Amino acid sequence: MLPSSSAGEPAQGQYGRAATIGMIGIFDSGLGGLTVLRALMARFPKQSFIYLGDHAHVPYGDRPSEHIVQLTRACSEHLFERDCRLVLLGCNTATAVAARTLQRNWLPQTIWKTRGHNILGIVAPTVEAATQTPWAVTTPKYPQSYISDRIAVFGTTRTIASNVYADEIKKRCPKVRVFQQACSKLAGAIEQQAPRAELEALVVEGINGVLEQTGGAPPHRAILGCTHFPLVEELFRQHLPPTTVILSQPEVVADSLEDYLSRRPHFTFPSETPELLLLTTGEPQEISVRARVFWPDCPSFAQA
Ligand code: DGL
Q: I want to staple 157 with a disulfide (CB 3.0 to 4.6 A). Which of 34, 111, 184, 197 is the partner?
């Protein structure tokens, strides 16, 4: 189980500090974040990573917000204790519900902040890519204010209920029309390896929900705002109107992290022998087997 210490002195990670300093932590509620991890490993082949999947509590999508904040805080702290100075919440639900609270209210009061640790999420880069507007721009500016595209957002119940995508897009591009659709069962069905026909029916249901809102007009862009959904991107591609561009969130996140690290190189320690540690709060053997569906050569998970 994860330790529950808060602002106290961090415990020494189980690996030697010298061997692990500079690891980047990637957190997800389950296995979907492997889509983000793999894009980052491809983009930063010399960087070491620790991935933590909270399988003891997946899915997050239907949990109360306070519980998501609490779980995300515990997992972020666990990654800090494992010598990750930078934690990326590679989970839309955790980012949508907890990122801001942890960044503004929790982290500044901890020993981790004084040590220069930080937490990032994956909503900001996705909004930047969808609006072609830097995150730092929080009021509409020409030409963004004139963009009047339709953007579809698919996510878990909690991500959609948070309204974070619609709010952040409209802050930058008020004329953009955002059509949000909760696909409440899809992440769980992917995680449980449901049959293709079942996944396809859930994808079609989500797309129909958006098309009903648009009156049948095709969205210009679609955000698959859940880490699990890239695994069924092909089904979204098949059933979305052909003109709709699907944003690839793992790639967008890799682009954004590359930019971030170029400005804050102290968070990255390239090595000729990079390490990868996969952790789970669930049962490692079972998770290692299930992970192969997401990543055929996936190394084994260890207990968090
Ligand atoms: N990883 C979550 C996300 O990106 C989906 C799975 C869950 O509901 O926990 O929203």
A: 184
